[in-house]
Amino acid sequence: MSATDLVILELRKLHRQFGDTPIIRGADLQLKQGERLALIGPNGAGKSTLFNLISGRTVASSGEILLHGRDISGLSPFQVNRLGLARSFQITNIFPQLSVRENLRAAVMSSHGYRNVFWRRLSTLRAVNQRTEEVLLSCGLHAQRDTLGGDLSYAAQRALEIGITIAGDASLILLDEPTAGMSRDESAAAAELIRSVSVGKTLLMIEHDMEVVFGLVDRIAVLVEGRIIACDTPEAIRGNRAVQAAYLGSVEAEPAA
Ligand SMILES: Nc1ncnc2c1ncn2[C@@H]1O[C@H](COP(=O)(O)OP(=O)(O)OP(=O)(O)O)[C@@H](O)[C@H]1O
Question: What is 137-159 written as a DSSP string?
């Protein structure tokens, strides 16, 4: 995928502390339109906190978050979502008692706005149904559309979660550890799914599986102790000594599973 020079998301000197403990300590990052970028870093580095800041779930102590050039610091998750940003969570977040199709339909309708009475119109309902079908196909779950979310395999639940995330057709997608807990084959399939659903979008993902990261993204940002210590191509990150010392060295030294 070719990224453009247009900056979609920018973090400027972002800080967040909990009580007296600084967790995000001056994070700077630029994400360009069409880019796939992985955020990696040791456990506790602040990756999920950074996602919470970007998506409006946590308010920054200081600094700026610009989405499409607009400062979104302090906006609610709902408002940030309306500006074209959708995120998934580390923990699977589906309705287990609803079918796959109903899960996706609810996500599509939510993206139209529950309070929007226009979705009751036939034309809008048709659009909702059409988008639901599209997402069912995109996330590879069409054959399981009538299966209850809770009856899906773990990997299929994660695929459904990706479907829920992309349902609203957001231009910027944040995925928090989409392959966590998967086997190697499941991770490879999930990476392909992420590749296909992110075509024409901008993707920021937290990911621990280096095989997935190196095969999928254009750039990698490395977060250590609340600061982005490097942001570069996978090859450059692999050769970066500071990164090796802080993170990759220890990961790559582990025997393959
Ligand atoms: N609401 C909170 N209140 C207090 N401390 C918090 C809060 N949220 C996160 N932290 C702390 O911030 C630090 C960073 O947590 P965070 O979950 O962002 O790290 P992470 O890089 O995503 O880690 P992991 O890879 O293990 O998921 C941790 O020490 C965590 O305990």
Answer: HHTT-GGGTTSBGGGS-HHHHHH
Distances (CA, A) of 88 to 137, 173, 220, 248: 19, 8, 19, 25
Rounded to the nearest whole angstrom, what is the distance from the C-alpha of residue 102 to the centroid of ligand 1? 33
- CB 240 less than 6 A from any atom of ligand 1: no
Structural domains in the chain, CATH included, are: 1-84+171-190+198-256 (3.40.50.300), 96-169 (no CATH)
Mutation test of ligand 1: which of 15, 18, 229 has the most ligand atoms closer than 8 Å to its C-beta? 18
**72-127 tens-digit pLDDT:** 999 999 999 999 999 987 777 899 999 999 999 999 988 876 555 555 666 778 88
Name the amino acid, one letter, at 6. Answer: L
8 CA from centroid of ligand 1 (Å): 25
What mean pLDDT, rounded, does the chain reach? 90
Averaged pLDDT for residues 176-193: 95
Rounded CA-CA distance 111/100 in Å is 17
Coil/strand/helix, residue 18: strand
ipTM: 0.95
Confirm if 155 and 189 have CB atoms less than 8 A apart.
yes
